[in-house]
Specification:
Length: 137
Amino acid sequence: MADKPKYEEQLQALLSRDVEEVPECPVVIDRLVLRFNVKGLTAKSIYRLRRQATRKVKADRTGETVESLDDEAFNSGLIVAGSDFPWGDSRLMDKYQTSTPDELVKRMLLAGELSNLGDKILELSGYDTSVEDVKNS
């Protein structure tokens, strides 16, 4: 057999890879002197986080109930799921008087830090977009 079809080469390449491996990179938050890694998340994980951060609200003009993504909740969920920092550490949650890792993220990080970290995790997850683009998908 001369040349294998191109798809056969692609199949072999996929069969030899670990698709569970996700890209990651280090991040630094200078203000807090924090260093940790963030990683990409699977589509299933992002879908679950998006669903958890979606709220039903009444539209102002029509009074209809519509779904709206809570950007802050979505970003904090991304950060908890997509970083190796121990956001659930009871000592930190006690110090900052929070009961969940998501609340701790929102308490410790500034709005821009929260948004930038969320965007970085989405980028590592294969999105070349911001939270706005993901919530519209």
